[in-house]
Design a protein that fits this description.
Blueprint lengths: L2 H22 L4 H32 L6 H17 L1 E6 L2 H5 L4 E4 L6 H8 L4 E6 L8 H7 L3 E3 L4 H18 L2 E4 L19 H9 L3 E6 L6 E2 L4 E2 L2 E7 L13 H18 L2 H4 L45 H14 L18
Parallel strand pairs: 1-9, 2-5, 2-6, 3-4, 3-5
Antiparallel strand pairs: 6-9, 7-8
Helix pairs in contact: 1-2, 2-3, 2-6, 3-5
Amino acid sequence: MAASDVLLSALGIVIAFTMSLNILGLIYRPLQFYGKFMICFLSMCTCASYGFFASIVLSLIGKKGLSQWTAGRAFSMLTCPIIGLKINIKNEEILKNTRPAVIIANHQTELDVLLLGRIFPKYCSVTAKSSLKYVPFLGWFMMISGTVFIDRQNRGKAIKALDGAINTMKTNNQCVFIFPEGTRSYFPEPDMLPFKRGAFHLALQSGFPIIPVVISNYSHVFSFRKRILQAGNIDVQVLDPVSTEGLASEDLDELVEATRSKMLDVLKQISPQAAKQPTSEVDSEDTTLLSASGTANGLVAVDAIDDDEVLEPRISRDADASELSAVLSATATEGTDLTPDVSKVIELDTRN
């Protein structure tokens, strides 16, 4: 039997199993959750494969900056109608008309990768931890589409990658997308984790504006803890760009807090459904969406944008070398975890 026949047979079995879960989910809801989750996984693999080949073609015609946008739109357009998700974006024209810029957004769950597919503007790239290069489908696409890979364990390589990102932003009039919380919050109510300073350092270093994007709390639509993945609306609001012209490193903390405060206010305003739900503590064991082996699952793509903490040491190059070496050694000892569980994020603070 040819390899293509085996592949098609395996795909048919997976699709049949997924559809069975969705049908049985009408009787027992958690089964429908896993069925829809598998749909997201298959859709992501399909769109990542499409994005890989699209990136090659776009590179040949001088349009490489559209690679991540076209793959993201395909993922959103294919998946949202199937799972019944509607994403409403207010002030989207800001994203279309402001380049280059550092785009930031609040980070809730693994479902954010699907929302990114709808939010992502043309000529924009994400930052990613270097280990994601080796994830099948997703990693291949990210390598060829212009992703800015950051090596957490090597500050020199991280600085070099960020220098390259700034040059690309200036040369190609391109944006960069970062989640300043550094990891997923899993809050059942409208709230955000403290912001890390990496994205703001990058904006100050480049002189480009910051565009805050606020995604309403959607725990009523997706919750792994409650095994919920159901149809619903998610509102997104793009805020006015925040200028970094004339700002220095001394203004960094005020810039971070002012931006976070404004985003949090808007988050509470546009999350009426989630705000009515009782607050409960999320069990970290319930948020694990990958097998213990660490292989990629359907929504691991969100983790591609978590690594902004390595941006922070970019400006303060006069840090004590021995202290920095100790911090990096501690980070390397912990290793890099590919699971989309709530992960440790070490912030390198060199302002001493």
